[in-house]
Design goal:
- By secondary structure, the chain is an alpha/beta fold.
- It contains 11 helices and 8 strands.
- The chain folds into 2 domains: 201 residues, no CATH class; 84 residues.
- Helix 4 links the parallel strand 5 and strand 6.
- It is globular and about 60 Å long.
- It starts with 14 loop residues before the first helix and ends with a helix.
- The mean pLDDT is 86.
């Protein structure tokens, strides 16, 4: 079992709290697969039929030297309440400069297939979106996902897309303004299509690549809004789909991960250290 004593921030816990944390960690570690990947299919089985959800995908940087250590995560997010639930997590480690992307397209595709196949049939429609950044490996994996399964609509993370449109060397204020309006608008069930088209058509950018990104974003948004409104509610804001909350979650969670050798990071210790934050969340919910 992973030694909790080496983790930062736990020295002030009393004996009773430490025992409770160890019990929670034991429960979480039961969900770690043979390859040291954490997977909780039970989280998918308890989705509420009146809620819409997204699967948000990201790689969280733990550290870059002396070796790269990332945690690849898939979180289930309630788009109405914003509640985050960790479904999958795995350590991705490598040496600097040798691999820019630690996860590859096949890894990502395999993980998402595994996750989606565990969604109960009667709840499948409640997963309305897969949210990812536009890293090349993610784009390749997500485009081919539908060859194997009926996939939820893929939409690229609005914050990452904003950075793409606002590149320092070539910013595009017209496309940026339109994306901001798309994300900030409160859409109504009866008028969301016309509203989306009106905002899209107002884009005065002359950069065809950016126009294509805006059109793709609007097309994905249209499908997602249609599915959200079919489940529940009469109003919806697309900012619920961005990875901002996931990034905040990651920034807090990785603070628990101590410095480790490359071998330790790749072992069960790498994922166990990350799961400590999940264990403390459970403790907070019990109080």
């Amino acid at each position: 079992m992973f030694n909790l004593n080496q983790l930062p921030g736990l020295t002030d816990l009393g004996p009773e709290e430490l025992m409770q944390l160890k019990d929670r960690m034991d429960m979480l570690m039961e969900r770690v697969l043979d390859g040291n990947d954490y997977f909780d299919p039970g989280a998918l089985a308890v989705m509420e039929t009146t809620q819409a959800y997204s699967l948000n995908v990201d790689e969280l940087w733990v550290r870059q030297v002396p070796h790269i250590h990332k945690i690849f995560v898939v979180l289930l997010v309630s788009v109405q309440s914003g509640k985050l639930t960790l479904v999958y997590a795995a350590c991705r480690c490598g040496m600097p400069k040798k691999r820019k992307y630690i996860s590859n397209a096949d890894d990502l595709q395999g993980v998402l297939l595994m996750v989606l196949r565990q969604v109960p049939n009667h709840l499948y429609r409640n997963v309305v979106a897969i949210v990812s950044d536009r890293a090349p490996v993610n784009m390749q994996a997500l485009k081919s996902l539908r060859r194997y399964i009926k996939s939820p609509t893929v939409i690229y993370d609005g914050t990452h897309l904003m950075r793409t449109l606002n590149k320092k060397e070539c910013p595009d204020p017209f496309a940026t303004k339109v994306l901001q309006e798309l994300l900030s608008t409160l859409y109504e069930k009866e008028t969301f299509r016309n509203h989306l088209y009106m905002i899209r058509d107002s884009c005065r950018s002359r950069k065809y690549e950016n126009l294509a990104l805006i059109w793709d974003f609007v097309s994905a948004s249209e499908d997602i809004l249609k599915n959200v409104f079919a489940i529940d509610g009469n109003q919806f804001n697309l900012s619920s789909l961005i990875n901002h909350r996931l990034e905040q979650y990651g920034m807090v969670a990785i603070r628990h991960v101590p410095e480790m050798s490359l071998e330790e990071s790749r072992s069960v210790n790498g994922i166990a250290a990350f799961l400590v934050y999940e264990a403390t969340k459970y403790m907070d919910e019990d109080e």
